[in-house]
From TrEMBL:
GO MF, one annotated term: transcription cis-regulatory region binding
Protein name stated in the entry: Transcriptional regulator, LacI family
Residue span(s) of domain HTH lacI-type: 12-66
Protein origin, superkingdom: Bacteria
Listed PANTHER family: HTH-TYPE TRANSCRIPTIONAL REGULATOR GALS, LACI-RELATED TRANSCRIPTIONAL REPRESSOR
Organism: Micromonospora echinospora (Micromonospora purpurea)
């Protein structure tokens, strides 16, 4: 506990922390700078001494020595309304924060959807302000990843870019889930329940997740001996409103459909609304499967069968990969790919 006597003696120093912890000054420095080259016992002793003395690192002085800012940016190419209301973004931020806990890194968040927001963000993303950048919700034409690499800023993408699903694509550092496999599981699950007219509400095709989940749908339909009918595909933007609009279009173009795979839980939730409005019973008339296993999936009526994707783990892995890049560590691969699985509930 920090006492009044401790405060009266002036700002605690690195040497004071070392003396209190019974370790060398270098060990304290390594703990403060987030180095992994410290034993768990020494790290615990240093952290306890820091807490007891109320030691606060001099960030400006450390930046001069390490040439680092101890800050990383999370840039989301969406509106603030979506970032603060949709469960996916909250889960990613929780995971990133967890992944940075044992480092000195501070996280700052920026939305970059409008031209004004993008200009402000691009101006700030330099090595004078941040050590690295995490990018989320990228569209294929976004120039930000190339710009950041040209500036020499370590960058990690949340989700495989759509361009990387095409032949001859340039490599990128990213963390993603097996979107193709997850979508394939969803359609195979519906087919296994006897559904034969399976439609899909796909995500944006200039985003990796949207493109990959539609690929998984196409593969599964073909594998069950069916023909992929363009009329059975509607394109949304991962939002609830787009799910409602797409479901209405599908009911008009294919009134005999008996199942729908939506590429996000929010679009699936919107689809449920449209089906209720049309007098279609779920799952009796139309079975519905979503993607993510967000809290919304458990709260919908009926509860939503969905594909689980480990959103918080995705955020943690993004943070770990970025920190490794900042530290110049050798990496076994430039990406992390996480598994998905089905979560059966009443909607299918």
């Amino acid at each position: 506990m920090t006492t009044q006597r401790t405060r009266s003696l002036g700002r605690p120093t690195l040497d004071a922390v070392a003396a209190r912890a019974g370790v060398g000054r270098g060990t304290v420095s390594r703990v403060v700078n987030g180095s992994p080259q410290v034993s768990p016992e020494a790290r615990a002793a240093v952290q306890q001494a820091i807490a007891e003395l109320g030691y606060v690192p001099n960030r400006a002085a450390r930046a001069l020595v390490t040439q680092r800012t101890d800050s990383v940016a999370l840039v989301v190419s969406e509106s603030g309304e979506r970032v603060f209301t949709e469960p996916f973004f909250a889960g990613i931020v929780r995971g990133i924060s967890s992944g940075l806990l044992e480092t000195p890194m501070q996280l700052w968040l920026a939305m970059a959807q409008s031209p004004v927001e993008r200009e402000r963000v691009e101006h700030h993303l330099t090595n004078q302000h941040v050590d690295g950048v995490l990018l989320l919700s990228l569209h294929d034409a976004d120039p930000l990843p190339t710009l950041l690499e040209e500036r020499g800023l370590p960058t990690v993408l949340g989700g495989r870019p759509a361009r990387m699903l095409r032949p001859g694509a340039q490599p990128a550092y990213f963390v993603d889930v097996d979107n193709v496999g997850g979508a394939r599981q969803a359609v195979e699950y519906l087919a296994g329940k006897g559904r034969r007219r399976i439609a899909t509400i796909a995500g944006p095709q200039d985003m990796g997740a949207g493109l990959a989940r539609l690929t998984g749908y196409r593969e599964a339909v073909a594998a069950t001996g069916g023909q992929v009918d363009p009329a059975m595909i509607a394109y949304g933007d991962f939002s609830e409103g787009s799910g409602t609009a797409c479901m209405r279009r599908l009911l008009e173009s294919c009134p005999d459909l008996d199942a729908v795979f939506a590429a996000s839980d929010l679009m699936a939730h919107g689809a449920l609304r449209a089906l209720r409005e049309a007098g279609r019973r779920v799952p009796d008339d139309v079975a519905v499967v979503g993607y993510e296993d967000s809290p919304l999936a458990r709260q919908s009526d009926p509860p939503l069968t969905t594909v689980f994707q480990p959103v918080e783990e995705m955020g943690r892995q993004m943070a770990h990969l970025l920190v490794s890049r900042i530290r110049g560590e050798d990496l076994p691969a430039p990406y992390v790919l996480l598994d998905t699985h089905m979560v059966p509930r009443a909607s299918a």
